[in-house]
Amino acid sequence: MKLSSFGQKLGEDAGINSLMDDLGEAMASGGDVVMMGGGNPGHLPEVTDRLQAIMKELVDDPEQFRRLTGVYDPPQGEKKFIASLVELLNQEYDWGLTTENVGLTNGSQSAFFMLFNMLAGEHPDGSHKHILLPLAPEYIGYGDAGLTPGLFRAVRPEIEELGDNQFKYRVDFSQLEITEDTAAICVSRPTNPTGNVLTDGEMLGLEELAREHDIPLIVDGAYGTPFPDLMYTEASPRWTPQHILCLSLSKLGIPAARTGIVIADKPVIRALSGVNAIMNLATGSFGAMLAEPLVRSGEIISMSRDLVRPVYRRKMESAVTAFREAMGDECPWRVHKPEGAMFLWLWFPDLPISSLELYRRLKARGVLVVSGHYFFPGLPDEDWRHRHECLRVTYSQDEADVARGLQAIAEEVKRAWAQG
Ligand code: PLP
């Protein structure tokens, strides 16, 4: 079989595919594996119970069950969910949305694929436009979502040392270059992989640049406000017609329902719905119908704030404590200030081995993490040592397992230093 450029780029060479295969194989090999590599949400019994009750109502009501299984939704998505969400967001934030500002997709991952390729790549005037990622490291899932090469340009951050083994990445506005070939700016907030939450000031700075250059600011809120609200710091949600805000139901606990939500200016939603119709005919109704009662009542917000967020916050705090105890101060280490999401981003300055080698040694011990070097899509600066000195560790799963995994990381880092 001879694959096209598209087939090769997405089907064979994509970094995310080899990473997922690698993690999948390690899991399938059985044995005692500590899984700190993926992005699966934790299991929260209260959330599961509530979803199960709604599901039962849907299944028991013939009319609802027919809508759930027997009807294609319009390409923009399930109408009742969209109407309820618009009402909720206007009530909470006064964003002045109408139903034409919201589109649903099969997971937010597919929304990014459609948006990036709708905006960047070849334009009818012959230009080739790119998406600017103003703060690397960024989400690995963007890197492979371009149909044409060179779709992303990323910028190195400023690194602020906070003391107490913590640091924080900041947008280096002096290095941001927006040209006539910049199609959009994109950030995840909170950021996967670092748990960073860009400050309100940084967000306003990016918004100003977007407005000045008449391009959208794409904000990936897969972990953000208003749901699942995995935020452990003060940060204001914001939407204007300049923004394309992407939300997801996945991290609330239903990744299998594959429901992404895009909130944007009407022409963006119209174009997105057109692309969605070609790629998917319709978005699946399942997630939207399951979550609609929670959105209509506003429960999705209280559930996120009062139930989901505290669980992850506790997991984050106990992971940081466990790692601090395991590392001590024998050799250099830092953790990115964990302000959101479900990851610790560990940095080992001057480590004698690469993060990829550290990942391999941990995998041999049955501890799965992700080497940090994957998370720099669009950053040409291969020689920047920092990108080979970091690990992403997911803390969403069982706390005792996470502590065991963190202990193994500390041991391997100390061994690497001892071997020199
Ligand atoms: N954005 C970020 C930052 C993510 O971490 C993920 C998944 O892990 C996604 C988007 C895509 O999530 P989904 O397609 O499940 O909505």
From TrEMBL:
| Pfam families xrefs | Aminotran_1_2 (PF00155)
Cofactors that this protein relies on: pyridoxal 5'-phosphate
The record's listing under InterPro entries reads: Aminotransferase_I/II_large, Class-I_PLP-dep_aminotransf, PyrdxlP-dep_Trfase, PyrdxlP-dep_Trfase_major
Q: Which domain of life is it from?
A: Bacteria
Q: Which SUPFAM superfamilies did the record assign?
A: PLP-dependent transferases (SSF53383)
Organism whose genome encodes this protein: Halovibrio salipaludis
The entry lists its GO molecular-function terms as: pyridoxal phosphate binding; valine-pyruvate transaminase activity
* Name this protein carries in UniProt: Valine--pyruvate transaminase
Q: What are the alphabetically sorted keywords of the record?
A: Aminotransferase, Pyridoxal phosphate, Pyruvate, Transferase
Single GO cellular component annotation?
cytosol
Q: Where is the Aminotransferase class I/classII large domain?
A: 50-409
Q: Which PANTHER family does the UniProt record give?
A: AMINOTRANSFERASE (PTHR42790), VALINE--PYRUVATE AMINOTRANSFERASE (PTHR42790:SF4)
Keyword Metal-binding assigned to the entry: answer is no
